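Milestone M4 deliverable, item 7.
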Amino acid sequence: MLATLMLAAALHTAPAADKPDWRTPFELGNGNTTATYAECIAYYKRLDAAYPEVTMREVGPTDSGEPLHEVVISLDGDADPASVRAKNRRVVFIQNGIHPGEPEGIDASMMLVRDYLQQKKLREQLQNVTLVVVPVYNVDGMLNRNATTRVNQNGPEQYGFRGNGRHYDLNRDYIKQESRNARSFAELFQRWRPEVFVETHTSNGADYQYTMTLIATQKDKLHPVLSQYLQQRLLPALYGGMEKRKWPMTPYVDFEGQTPESGLIGFLESPRYSTGYAALFNTIGFMPETHMLKAFKPRVESTYALLDEVIHFVHRDADALAAARAEADRQLLAQTLFSLTWQLDKSAADEVQFRGYEGRTRPSEVSGQPRLYYDRKAPFTRPVKHYNTYRPAATVQKPAAYLIPQAWETVIERLRRNGVQLQRLTQDATIEVDAQYIEEFQTTPRPFEGHYVHSRVQLRTVRQSQHLRRGDYVARLDQPAVRYLVETLEPQATDSFFTWGFFDSILQGKEHFSDYVFEDLAAEVLRRQPALRQELEEKKKADAKFAQDGAAQLEWVYRRSEYSEPGYRRYPVLRLTGAENLVVE
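Output delivered:
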C-alpha cells in the first residue's frame, strides 16, 4: 500500500513525459546563439508532423546540394496557391537566411510560426492570410558556419557566410538567376505571387539608437497605386505598431556624408535585389535591417515584432490591399510608357526625427590619423533630411511584342521561369521590325558577381526587314509579366539581360577589312550615298579628335555600309511595334 502511494505521488509531481518542448534552439541557448541548418529544418519538420495547418515541402535544388524548403501555414491546411487564391486569402511571403551571417529572421520565424499555431489570438490573424516561409534561402552559406566573417557584428557566437556555394551574393541574383537557389526561388515566387514579401537582413554602417531599420520598396519605382497604399496606409501602420511595441524604426541608414545627419538616402533597389524583383510583379516588398551593433537577442526580438506587425496589418486590411493590388495589375496591362533607369532628386526631401549618436573623431591607434567614432554617451534626436525621391532617367514606349531568336536559350529559360507567356512561330516569316544597335556603353573594370556589368548604353534604332525562323519566340506585352519583360529585355534598363552580359557575343565583330583595300570601297560608298557623306562631314565638324583620326572615319563608314556584318552590335531581341499577324503555336 505504501509503495502504491509513493508511486502515485511520484507520478503526480513529475512533469508529463509526453509533453513536447517547443522551444527553439535560440530560446534554449544563451541569447547569443542561432540555429544550425540541421536544427532549423528539423524544427519545422516537427511542426509539420504535429500540426495539420503546416505543410513543409522541398521546392527545388540549391547550389549546396540540399533542397530549398517552403513552409506553408493555412488554418485549413490548404497549401495549394491556386486554391488559396480562390478562397480570397492574402499571401505573406517571408524569406530568411539569404545572408546567413544575418540570421535573426531564421530564429524569429521559427518562434513566429510556432506561436501562430499555438496561440488563439495569433491564429485569428490567419483567417484570411496564408503565410509562406522559406526557412533558409542560402542553404550553402548557412552550412559554411564560422565566427569571424561578420567582423563588425555583435553576435551571435557562430553564423553562416554571405556567399553561396558558388560564392554569389544571392541578393544580387534575382534577375540573372545563375544559382540554383535563385532559380528555385523564382519558380516558388511565381506560384504564390504574394501581396507582401519580406526578406530579413542585418545592416552594416553607422551607429545609432535603433535596433530595427527598414527598407521598403522604393516608392517611385513601385506602381503608383501600390505606392500610395504603401505610403499612406501600410508604412504608417508598421512604424506606429513598432513604436508601441518599444521597437522604434527608421528608414534604412544610408548616407553620403560622414554621419547620418548629412541626410538619409532612400535605397534604390533595382531588380537584382529581392524587393526590386518583387516590385516587377506588383508585390510590396520589405527588407528589415536590424542594427549590427545591437546584441543578437534584441535583434531577433525586433524582427519577430516586425513580422508579426506585417501579418496583423495584412489581416486587418486584407480587402483594401487586394483592391490596390488588383487595380495596379489592371493599370499595368494598359501602361505604355515604362521607366528603365532612375536618378535621385536631391532637390526633394522630407524629414525624419532621427535618434542617433554624436559622431566625433580621435587619433587612430593604427595610423595616428583622425578616425570616426560614435559617442554613445551623447545620444540625440533631431530632424534629418530623407532623400527618397527618384525620377525616371530613361524611359521607353513598350512594343506590341518582343521577338527572341531561339538561339538565346539562356534568356528563354529565364523568361519561362518567371511567368512569361511565350509563343513560337510555326513557320518562317519576314516582317518589318525595330532593330536596336548598341552604339556606346561602359563596362565595369572588375567583375561584379561574376560579370563585367554594362551601363550607360546608347542605342541606334533602325526600321528594317527581318527574317524570322520557325521556332523563334514571341513575347507579347499584354500579359501580367509585362514589366519584367521590359526591364530585362530593354538593353538600357539597370538590370537588363544585356547589362549582365547575356548578349556579349554580339559586341565582337566576326569579319573586318584591310584598310588599304577598303579605302577605295569606302570612297565609292560615300559617292553613292551623299546623305552618308554629309553625316560624316557633320561628325568631323562636331568631333575634332574624330576629324584627325583617319582609321576611325574608315571604321565609321564601314559600319554604315553594306559590307559591315549585319549582326555586329545588333541587339538580338527585336521590337514588334505594329499588329503584324504571326503564325504561332
